[in-house]
Amino acid sequence: METRTITVIRGDGIGPSIVDAATAVLDAAGCGFHYEYVEGGLAALEHTGELLPATTLEAIERNRVVLKGPLTTPIGQGFSSINVSLRQHFQLYANVRPVLSFPGTKARYEDIDIITVRENTEGMYSGQGQVVSDDDMVAEALSVISRGGAERILRFAFELARREGRRKVTVVHKANILKSTSGLFLRVAREVAAQYPEIEMIEMIVDNACMQLVMRPEQFDVIVTTNLFGDILSDLCAGLVGGLGMAPGANIGADCAIFEAVHGSAPDIADKNIANPTSVILASCQLLDYLEEGAIAGRIRAALRTVIAAGKHTTTDLGGTASTTEFTDAVIEALSAA
User: Fold this and answer.
1) Catalytic residue among 35, 109, 235, 290
2) Are 27 and 56 in contact (CB under 8 A)?
3) 35 is catalytic
């Protein structure tokens, strides 16, 4: 494949160890990437006084493709969420969270294959209208849904379904109560769905969607929804396949994309070489798919499947005793044997 430079943010806590695992796997798969390493989060704050230094933003702007470990935003110190800031700065309007069953994870379900597509820049996470009264008795925030934003994410979901040969898109909403915001989202969904007659559209209220995901997850294929609902549902979906350690995420805009582990930085196990790197390895597979290198991504996913199913070199969260390094080496060995 063509040599390409990608921006890498190793992140905080366990981030450096799991991101290094992912780049080692990418190298072993023959990707030939050049990595431009930049800082974000607590590491950047310590070295530069900023959570997102200008040099980091410039590197993302320059390379347009990013592999990112978990970043920590200090709580209660006036800092805005780093992830939200990145999404808004680069207009990464689509959050894509696939979950896929891997034998050997001891998850509650088998044969799960669901993609959650979440609007990433509007809704309750837009940051608009956040006010707390002087006496700390009343707090307010605005949820803003635009027709343009709704149509953009809905079309993204239906195009993804068409491209991947999926047959159903479930639009999750709360239009029975939130008649303005969810109502607009649902009306636009019906308009967009009419342009994709080969794909079945299901309308589902969010609370019922949560129940159905627990009771009969096999009925879901692609889910598309607004920001807050998507944040909650995508974590629920991760629980179906073994937890956040098995769940990658992509944030995609018109000409820029960030691929990441979706879990936190887990500072309690940082530098202990015991973290499961699967989430960020799978995120690197999403990155390869984005660059139209699906064959390489498929080889890496197959290697992961082999190692996890065998159970000899899995990390503690998967029921094994292997270190991050041992797990990564086993994946690389499976790649070379394929």
Assistant:
1) 235
2) no
3) no
* Catalytic annotation present for 174: yes
Among 240, 257, 286, give the residue marking a domain's end.
240
pLDDT, position 82: 86
For residue 295, which phi and psi values (nearest 5 degrees)? -65, -40
**Given 20, 174, 221, 329, the catalytic residue:** 174
What are the backbone angles phi and psi of residue 71, rounded to the nearest 5°?
Answer: -115, 145
- Does 207 participate in catalysis according to the annotation? yes
Taking a C-beta distance cutoff of 8 angstroms, is the pair 201, 186 a contact? no
Whether residues 264 and 221 share a domain: the answer is no
Catalytic member of 207, 271, 272, 312: 207
> φ and ψ at 91, to 5 degrees?
50, 50
Domain around 44: 1-98+242-338
Based on the structure, what is the number of domains in the chain?
Answer: 2
Q: What is the CATH number of the domain that holds 302?
A: 3.40.718.10
pTM: 0.94
Residues 308 and 332 in one domain: yes
* Average pLDDT per 10 consecutive residues for the chain, totaling 338 residues: 89 96 97 96 90 95 97 71 88 97 92 97 84 94 95 98 97 97 98 98 98 97 97 96 95 97 92 96 98 96 97 93 97 92
Active-site annotation holder among 231, 289, 317, 329? 231
Residues 334 and 246 in one domain: yes
